[in-house]
Design a protein that fits this description.
The two termini are about 15 Å apart. The chain is an alpha/beta fold. Helices cover about 45% and strands about 15% of the residues. The chain has an eight-stranded parallel barrel, surrounded by six helices. It has a single domain, classed as Alpha-Beta Barrel (TIM Barrel), CATH 3.20.20. It is built from twelve helices and eight strands. The structure holds 1,3-dihydroxyacetonephosphate. 1,3-dihydroxyacetonephosphate binds next to β8.
Amino acid sequence: MKKLIAANWKMNKTVPEAVSAAKELKLLIKNSKNAEVAVCPPFTALEAVGKELEKTKIKLGAQNMHFEDSGAYTGDISPLMLKGIGCEYVILGHSERREFFKEDDVLINKKVMSALKNKLTPILCVGETLEQRSSSKAREVIDKQLRNCLDKVNAKQMQNVVIAYEPVWAISRGISNTKPATKEDAEEMHKFIREFLGNIFDSATAKNARIIYGGSVKPENAEELLSMPNINGALVGNASLNAKSFAEIVKAAEN
Ligand code: 13P
């Protein structure tokens, strides 16, 4: 399975900045063969970045969406709109959406179902807080998030879902010295997620599921995290804002 390296630019970059980063990135990774790369700019830059990335293998993704195709939802963006400008991926249930916008598992599940219906690949984020980890509840939290967010998803649809394990305590929030999970801790949770998928779907679905890691991934630690057997890629925040450091992470996934 090719590793998926996805850039989550969060609420950063104006349109010219985003286009210039995409331009730089496509040159830097033009020889990359063994990794699949996706860029998730803010909504305003999606179309322009998509045009810049035309005729490259770099895929386009959004950071959120509404679950309805259209309607009176002021300020929101629908799956049809994303599909219409060439998005293939959509990040759903990111911990920042859960925390700052009070998104819950029921809402995230509606979005997952809607993304699948509209042939967008959801990158479904799950992750525990530091408090939950310290009180040994990490597995319980991930189990519940997955169970709820994947409600009504069948094994065939699951082939088109990416799970991103993003421990909330490891996300940099723009502070570059945050520590990622150790490769052992990340691997343990990824293995747990794969076993969970084996239990609710079947062993083939679990084996083929893409489970990627997010939280302070940088060029310095990408290779060791990506070398773990159950880590199938990375969702990169801060380090993806710089095309050179993101390209180095892509290179680490090639090995
Ligand atoms: P950082 O890489 O900045 O820790 O962010 C991770 C993340 O939230 C990606 O979705």
